[in-house]
Specification:
The complex is a heterodimer. Chain A is mainly alpha-helical. Chain A is built from 10 helices and no strands. The chains are: A mainly alpha, B mainly alpha.
Chain lengths: 208, 84
């Protein structure tokens, strides 16, 4: 689905190819924020703007060869994701899916279950049990922010795009070039970690 | 019959309605008899909804848009310059 303030891809692409400045401006205004968001979730805050700007240059350069197998938006987001990933590789930090998939599979400490897989230490009661009550505590919000920052890169990116930005899973898989089954495993790990952060805060009376 | 550990592993797929009919039914049956897992599922659902309420937009100033558009125009001109 195109951004609501943008003309359709059919209308926009010929104008962009003809270097129409209004079309450039519309495109950048509509998508730059999301591009920075994606770059930030992959490379971190400090160089996200730079990565997004670099991706724009690749977009304009590659546009004549755009085959329209995906929407313009998904294609652009994929370019920023690739730009960010290759930037990480240059800094020799791990980005491969394998690395993320090899992390411990236990979402919840195994000693919270007995040998039959039943809870021995069940989930605790939450005093703040609605999104509004959770977010009304700045301490709790800080715990969530920290937990988000500490997630492995790919988990963080998938969680951000799915649960914060509300993108569809198939779109996310195209942008990040991951399979849907892997993406779902990573999404669940990431959500479980954030649930745990909220839980820790509520059990430890303000600490996380 | 699923146990509690199984439920915690399938919780996201259950909430996202990604489980096949039979697996979904098994989760439902377990939830009928297990208050702890009901609580776990509710907490995960609340977590997802809380994430949905976090700040989404990254504001983009006019100045940033201008700068990028200028860069793009320049890059395009360089690209179109005939090579000597």
């Amino acid at each position: 689905m195109p951004h609501r303030s943008l003309p359709s891809d059919d209308e926009l692409i010929p104008k962009l190819l003809a270097s129409d400045e209004t079309a450039y401006r519309q495109l950048v205004s509509a998508y730059h924020g999301m591009m920075v968001y994606i770059a930030r979730s992959i490379v971190g805050e400090s160089i996200a703007d730079e990565v997004a700007q670099e991706a724009w240059l690749s977009v304009i350069k590659a546009l004549p060869n755009f085959e329209r197998r995906a929407s313009l938006k998904t294609w652009i987001m994929r370019i920023v994701s690739n730009t960010a990933k290759s930037r990480l590789r240059h800094e020799s930090r791990t980005v491969s899916l394998e690395d993320s998939m090899n992390e411990s599979g236990d979402l919840i400490s195994p000693d919270r279950f007995d040998e039959r897989g039943h809870w021995t230490s069940p989930p605790s009661f939450w005093h703040a049990d609605t999104p509004d009550s959770i977010l009304s505590s700045s301490q709790l919000q800080a715990c969530i922010d920290n937990a988000l920052k500490e997630l492995p890169q790919l988990q963080r990116t998938i969680l951000s795009l799915r649960d914060i930005q509300g993108l569809e899973m198939d779109q996310i898989c195209k942008i990040l070039d991951v399979s849907e089954s892997n993406a779902r495993v990573l999404l669940h790990r990431a959500r479980s970690r954030i649930r745990e952060a909220i839980d820790e805060h509520q059990r430890n009376q303000g600490e996380c | 019959m699923l146990n509690c550990k199984d439920i915690t592993k399938q919780a996201s797929n259950y909430l996202d309605k990604e489980l096949p009919y039979r697996a979904r039914l098994q989760v439902r049956l377990h939830l009928l008899i297990c208050v702890h897992c009901q609580r776990y599922i509710n907490q995960l659902r609340t977590t997802i909804r809380t994430l949905g309420k976090l700040k989404k937009d990254i504001p983009v100033s006019e100045q940033v848009v201008d700068d990028i558009v200028n860069n793009l125009r320049q890059a395009k001109q360089n690209q179109e310059k005939p090579k000597k």
